[in-house]
Each structure stands twice: as structure tokens, then as C-alpha cells.
Recover the amino acids of this structure.
């Protein structure tokens, strides 16, 4: 199976405005408890397929990673934290059913200790992120937002941090009365 095409030279992500990043993962605490951790392990690919079929939900890209034989996680790039929240709470999406099932098992005392779950969400303001890719296919932030030649944003990291699109803060401002 051929890989993604390599973009020769140095590039940077074409992200503008705030960037929303979700790190979400699981840890298998007891390998022998397959019936407890396997459904959790299989839930994430199902959610990613669901989101891929509906780009309007706001997932721009993701990277699947392994931290150890026990720990698996996904770095996800979202259009906004509002779209991430909307997906997480949507009653018609699989995430809501999976979370309800997990909560039910915990209440019944059937899930504790066998599998660990975690997530971290970051809204990174423009001017607080930069990237560089050398002879790489689009990856991570660049796969989510596109990639441009490095010179367009600056050859040095401090120049890329200083880049402003005019969209800074546009995604992070909430209407009055919603906080």
C-alpha cells in the first residue's frame, strides 16, 4: 500500500486563527479483562468513521498514536471547541451512546479498574503555535489545516509565531451571556 505523497522541502501548517486540539485515549489496566477494554478500544475508530462521513461536525484531522502496549490515544484537530462540544453531546452520535454505556457499567461496578480513559482539550490562540515539516507528507496540524511553503509564514520559529491571519480570537469569543 503506497503512503501519502511527500511534499519536498520545508513547509508549515496553514492554520489560521485559534486551533482546537483534543488528545483522547485509553489505558488497558488489566490485559486479561478483554471484555471490558475491547469495546472501549473499538469505540474510537467507530467515532472517527462517523465523523469522517459528516465533515460538518468539525473534525479536521486526527493522528492515532500508541504510547505503550497498554496506552493508545488520538490527537484530534477540530474547527472549534463549540463543534467538539456539539459532537460530544449530540444524542444521535455514537459518542453519546458509548459514554452512557460506560457510565452505566461504572454505576453497576462492572468497569472500574479494567480500563482507564482520559482526554485533554486545548484551544491554542493564534500566535501560540507554529510548525515545520521537512520532506513530509501532510501530517498533524498540516494534515488538518493544509500546508504551505515555509517562506509564507517565516523561515524561523519566531517568525511563524508572529504570523497573524486577522482571524485571531474569532473562534474563541463567545456571545454575551453564554459563559
Amino acid at each position: 500500500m503506497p503512503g501519502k505523497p511527500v511534499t519536498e522541502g520545508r513547509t508549515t501548517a496553514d492554520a489560521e486563527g485559534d486551533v482546537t486540539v483534543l488528545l483522547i485515549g485509553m489505558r488497558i489496566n488489566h490485559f486479561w479483562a478483554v471484555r471490558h477494554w475491547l469495546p472501549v478500544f473499538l469505540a474510537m475508530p467507530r467515532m472517527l468513521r462517523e465523523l469522517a462521513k459528516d465533515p460538518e461536525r468539525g473534525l479536521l484531522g486526527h493522528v492515532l498514536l500508541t504510547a505503550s502496549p497498554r496506552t493508545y490515544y488520538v490527537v484530534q484537530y477540530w474547527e472549534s471547541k463549540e463543534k467538539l462540544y456539539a459532537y460530544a453531546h449530540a444524542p444521535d452520535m455514537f459518542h453519546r451512546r458509548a459514554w452512557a454505556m460506560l457510565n452505566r457499567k461504572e454505576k453497576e461496578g462492572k468497569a472500574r479498574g479494567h480500563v482507564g480513559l482520559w482526554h485533554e482539550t486545548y484551544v491554542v490562540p493564534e500566535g501560540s503555535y507554529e510548525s515545520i515539516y521537512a520532506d513530509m507528507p501532510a501530517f498533524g496540524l498540516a494534515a488538518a489545516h493544509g500546508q504551505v511553503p515555509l517562506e509564507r509564514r517565516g523561515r524561523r520559529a519566531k517568525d511563524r509565531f508572529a504570523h497573524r491571519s486577522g482571524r485571531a480570537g474569532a473562534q474563541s469569543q463567545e456571545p454575551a451571556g453564554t459563559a
Remarks:
- DSSP finds five helices and seven strands in the chain.
- The two ends are 48 Å apart (CA to CA).
